[in-house]
């Protein structure tokens, strides 16, 4: 699959790495950022120290939209 942003720029030499968790478009290493998010697990009062985090690919368009206020 082709990265959506690359097709917009007319590039064909990039390798897609995954799908943006926000917009669902396929994206490449140049146009995506890997973000880590904590998985909220409330199982009573005890919070384990090493809570698991998940990895998500987010395209730069969505990332900018999320971080610009
Ligand atoms: Zn790209
Ligand atoms: Zn996106």
Automatic annotation (TrEMBL):
Q: Which InterPro entries match?
A: UCP037465_Znf
Q: What is this protein called?
A: DUF2180 family protein
Source organism of the structure = Streptomyces cinereospinus
